[in-house]
Each structure stands twice: as structure tokens, then as C-alpha cells.
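Input set for joint prediction.
Command: fold jointly, output C-alpha cells.
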Amino acid sequence: MLLSELERIGRFLDPWREFERINRVRSGMAPLSGCEFPPINLWVSAENTVVTIEIPGMEPDSIDIQVVGSTLTIKGARKAFDLKAGEAYHRRERWAGQFTRAVELPYEVDPGKVDARVSKGVLTVMLPRAAADMPKKITVKTV
Amino acid sequence: MSTEKKEVQVQGSDIQAERTRPRRVYTPTVDIVEAKDVIEVHADMPGVDESCVELKLEKNVLTIYGKVEAEIPENHRLAAAEYGVGDYQRVFTLSDEVDREKIEATVKNGVLRIVLPKAAAVKTRKIAVRAEA
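C-alpha cells >
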């Protein structure tokens, strides 16, 4: 299957990512802060793509998911604490703010069959390939 | 850390025992907020719910451990990964001002919230001053 798009996103676009990953593995930190938030994992098969995104602390209805053609766009926000008088941060490592992430998939998606669910702070989006975009098998006839 | 105050310290890996499960362990990112009566710790642990998170208090060392079962979609292969799936562990040393009996923890949407109430002895008290007769 056509993977060039995914490989471009994942592996070849950013050579620094590998250094960053090594650095994080060495320091035992979670592999996100400093990277783009929220982090995305992409699973692919011939007919389907599964996108999983870590969105801890976000309500499901505050996430906006859109699929146009072969592009998946996810928007959302995570609020920081509303510090009241007398409250203070001792440590502030968690990410807060608004985000927009877009992923270009290697094929057209059937928007009617897209399924998204949130469980334990992980968003899973199923993106089945559009039937019109499926590879067609061509039988060879003998003349 | 200059912003860190004396009440809550984050420790490295002083009391780590060998684990029996061969898997990656990540350090969750945390926010620590101190209010008048409580100290709240919020830790990002996506993939964790109340059944698989463990809090252990030993003397003055609080250990958070979250077990995560990786959910791998069948017949799919990983094309791009920005995060890794693994367990979570982080260790904190509590000061004497935390009331150990009243520590509470909740999990919601993959965020662990620990409420550490301050002991009555260390709460600021106002002492009324009376005029001497």
C-alpha cells in the first residue's frame, strides 16, 4: 500500500526527533513535552487507519475532529489551573493551551464511517478507507 | 529548581526495586499546586484508570505506579509513533506537614489527582490579641 505520506510524516520529516527520543529515553521522561502536543500514534492496514492520541484531562466534547478528503484535523484545548488567591505552583510540567493537529492519510477516508472514542485519556479515531478509493482487482482474460 | 519550595520534593530513583514485567516505565508529567489547606498533585497518565493505578506511602515516600495495558489494533502496523506506551512511575518525598491519614486520590480522563491535606498543626492560625484589663 501507499505509505509514502505516512513515512514522510513519521520518520523523514524531522531528523531531530530521533535525537529527542534518545534524550528522553536516557532521562526517563515521557516522550512528549517539547514535542508537539498532543502526541499521535498511527496504525495502518490496507483498509483502515487507526489514530491514537494522548489527551489526558480533556473532556470528550471539547475535542473537535474533522475529516476532509484524506486529511484528519483535531482541535482542542486544555485549561491550566485557575489559581485562586493564596495558591501557587510548585511544579508545572503539564502542557496547557490550544492545539490543532492535522494528519494527511495516504487515501481518501469515508467520512460517514469515521468512529472516534475516548477512553482513559486516550482518543482513538478509526478511519476506514473510502470504498471508491479501494484498489480494484483486475482479472486477466485469455483471448 | 529554584521555583520549588521546601514542602514537596521530587526524588530521583532512590528506592527502585527490580520490576518483574519487562516494559518501559515513563515518568508522568505533574503539576503541583499548593493552596491554603491542601497540596494537589495532578499527573498525566493516559491509559490509566482507577483499577490499575497504585499509590503507596512508605514512611514519607509516596510512590505512584500506573500499569498500562497496550491496546494494539489487530492487523495494523505502526506507521508513525510520537509517544510510547508503558507504565508510569514517580516518587515524591512528603514533608511532615502533610496529614498522611487523609490523602485522597482520584482518576479522571487519564489524569491522577492526589489531594494531600496539610496537618492541622502546620496550618496558619490567627491568634486573637485582647486588650489587657
